[in-house]
Predict the 3D structure of the following.
Amino acid sequence: MIIKTAKPLPSSEITDQTIFVNRRRIIKAMMAATALASSLKPQLSLAVEQHWPGLPNSFGPGNSLTTTPAKLVKNYTNYYEFSFNKEDSTKLAQKLPIDPWSVTVSGEVEKPGVYDLADLLRRQTLEERIYRFRCVEGWSMVVPWLGFPLSNLLKEFRPLSAARFVKFTTVFRPEVMPKQQANAMLNWPYVEGLRIDEAMHPLTLLAVGMYGDTLPKQNGAPLRLVVPWKYGFKSIKAIVKIELLRNAPLTTWNQAAPDEYGFYANVNPDVPHPRWSQRSERLLGSHFFSPRRTTEIFNGYGEQVASLYREMNLQHFY
Amino acid sequence: MIPSATNKYWWLILAGGLLPLWSLGVDIVGDRLGSNPIQALHIRLGDWALRFLCLTLAVTPLQTISKWRGMAEYRQLLGLYTGFYATLHLWVYLVVDQALQWSAIGGDILESRYIWFGVIAYLIILALMLTSSAWAKKQMGKYWKKLHRLIYLAAVSAMIHYLWQLKGNLAEPMLYVLIITLLLGFRVLVWLKKRHFNRLMIPLGKRNQEE
């Protein structure tokens, strides 16, 4: 995997440029380090492959997934805080200020607090993860995310044994988010949640970038969740709060339409949405007259995650 | 469908009805259908079928209000355009999106309740298309009007088909609901008025005819 690294910058530019904000510099530097590591030490990426032999994605050559063209991913986002139109949020989201950014950590942890995102990122190692992303609406894409396992971050806050769920909250900025301002459609701010074992699963990623660059704002900058075996709405954008809880949080779509969107929202072709089938998906970038892709249970990550749900009736816990 | 001399706008509507198709063609060639072009194409064709359905339903109220006679030919043409775009909408689903994978199509229709209403609407519209000619009208006699009243059922089904696949944003869909409700409401009012007069006429005899 070739990782597009930062363009070489003359040092003069780095010192006086205000456009290259703090976060961007840190992520770029981390990416450069990652790229260096993988180019100089290919065994590093091999080690990761060995750790997850059955991963549908991999971190080196031989990757079987073809990534969706970045342009398509950047102009097709459900970011309802800005717009109900997938193209319009591309432009509207640019108004969201994301630097500086802080994340509030609270609940069942030893080290609650308000953390500066730049500080949190400095202690993480970025990885590129190529994941399938399946929307509940019946379309999908393949995205090379840049991020780190959520578990690596959660461990820093030392979760207590009472912590059984993790709740995530998106930023509430009605002055730049028109649908929050209008109080339209959903209860804002947007809330998502995971069970603690889902949150600690190595596939669960906190992304800060994609396609070798920082996250575009419409794709959830500066920090978003990526849970590849669940429908896309679980992968919450622009996270400002992470809470470790004893009980399951009430998540936004579950609250809005409990019979249509469950807490788990695992990709499952055998459980149709009450109004439409989930058997197939339109892969973005595929051509006219090409068949739809057959949707896989757990979005193709069953080998890694099916054990989390072994005792559960997936028809009931959709 | 030969236009009579009174319907001078017939050719204009015939040409105008092809504009949405032309603009879609231009957008396909220019790659301007966005990240999910198949869905965009499918939705735009469905939107136009619904718009032409609204226009078709608007002819009779317009005729009643304006006392402008001989608009049935416009209604027929607009109805055929409704069927034309509904057919393209269906073909894009079957051929462009599902690539004629019949088992997948069957499963998709069975599990997608909103599609059931699309199927109902389309079957009605297809029947109306096939019987739209003056010849068919003559052959069918009084049954023609009965059959073509199913357009109201098609309109309601098309609305449900449209609304039921949405996730939440209801601004534009509500506009269509309003238009179709008004157009169907007009029929209900006419029907109620007629019934009212008919009732009055039974006991009171000739006096009410002057009203």
